[in-house]
Structure formats: C-alpha cells, structure tokens
Automatic annotation (TrEMBL):
Protein name: Fluoride-specific ion channel FluC
Keyword Transmembrane: yes
Protein's organism: Deinococcus carri
Topology relative to the membrane: Multi-pass membrane protein
Gene name, Swiss-Prot/TrEMBL: crcB_2
Pfam families for the chain: CRCB (PF02537)
C-alpha cells in the first residue's frame, strides 16, 4: 500500500513536470514516458527477483506497489479515446503503437539488463 502511494505521487509529479510538453505537442507524452519507464523497471525487477538476487518482497513492494500505481493503462486508454474524439486518428494510432511497442521493448531491455547485472 505504501508503494502504491509512492508510485501514484511519482506519476503525478512526472505528469506535472511534463505538462508544458504535452500542451505544446497535443500528445500524451507524459503517460507514454511513464508507462515505458515503468515497463523497463518492472522487467529489471522481475529479472533480479527471478534470479534470487532481490527478495520476493521487492517484486511485491516495488513491482506491484510502486510500479503498479506509477504506470497506468486506464489513462492510456482514455488518452487514445480523447485523440480519437478530437479527430486525431493518426495520432491515436501512433500513440497506441508507440505505447505498446516501446513498452514491450523496454520490458525486454529491463529484463536483459537485470539478468546481466
């Protein structure tokens, strides 16, 4: 529960920090960055826990708690819908493809890094 509070506060802080960029571009880049970073960190965490290098509590506290609240699929979904509602279908498709593609790539890179450290 404490990890969730930390993750939610971190997401809010990053969103505030990137608000000017989002306003300039009209694209939900804050959530894209948050979700890609969260995917990388979860891949790293799972690799370290899976190899017995970090305790299972790290997966629960950091992976489920902090990263579960830091990343957000629901906001991603609402932002894709918002782009569609504004008539920005191309941007919506690009955002969805980048979110999924970069998220998976980041998770793989995190897992690979975690296995090599």
């Amino acid at each position: 529960m404490a990890g969730g509070a930390v993750g939610a506060a971190a997401r809010y802080g990053v969103t505030l920090l990137l608000t000017p960029l989002v306003a300039r571009t009209g694209l939900p880049l804050a959530v894209l960055g948050i979700n890609v970073l969260g995917s990388f960190l979860l891949g790293l965490t799972l690799a370290r826990v899976g190899r017995g290098l970090w305790p299972e509590a790290a997966r629960l506290a950091f992976g489920t708690g902090v990263l579960g609240a830091f990343t957000t699929f629901s906001t991603f979904s609402v932002e894709v819908d918002g782009l569609l509602m504004r008539g920005a279908g191309g941007a919506a498709v690009l955002y969805a493809l980048l979110s999924v593609g970069l998220g998976v790539l980041a998770a793989v890179l995190g897992r690979e890094l975690g296995a090599r450290l």
